[in-house]
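Subject: for your reference before the review

Hello V.,

The reviewers asked for a structural picture of the protein, and I figured it would be easier to keep everything in one thread rather than splitting it across files. Below is the amino acid sequence we used in the manuscript, unchanged from the supplementary table.
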Amino acid sequence: MLPADRAQKQRALAAYLVAGARSGRARDFSALVRLFDARLRNHARRLSDDADTARDIVQEAWAAIARGLSGLRDDSAFLPWALRIVTRFAARDVARRQRHRRAEAGHAENLRHQAEETRPDPPDLAAALATLPAAHRATLALFYLEEMSVAEVAVALDIPPGTVKSRLLHARRKLRDHLEGESDGST
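And here is what came back from the structure prediction:
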């Protein structure tokens, strides 16, 4: 099955389950959770850089999703809508932890600098991705791994489509420079 066909079938299934959950069928909401929980956790993980925090964010997000299902206008747009909720919860979490993260950021920058100096040849994609800001990693992952359109990524991250395009452009350029060994260590 082609990826586009798979995505279309998954959107149709999600729309069916959303309609059922909205009408009070708990098994349909449970099926939504089974269908999308891993994807929401992956998104939260990319935004929070911590598996435990990501799990907590997604747990809160599912409660908000359950409360907000009646306000979803297009049942087939469930995934971008749910990802936007996760994005908002992750942003709140980042704001709560901002002071703690500043201290960690200094340490992480030192580690990143050391890693760049001792980077093995050839650099691998995972290391290159790790050098990107969380916002760029999340944008790339939604666009390429989740196979979402620019418009869907914009909804999921609650940003304008132009910002999605800009992030994709800059992230690709940074990855290419890093993988080609032309990275100067700046972000």
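For the response letter, the relevant points are probably these. Residues 1-96 form a domain with the Rna Polymerase Sigma Factor; Chain: A fold (CATH 1.10.1740.10). The radius of gyration is 18 Å.

Happy to draft the paragraph if you're swamped.

O.
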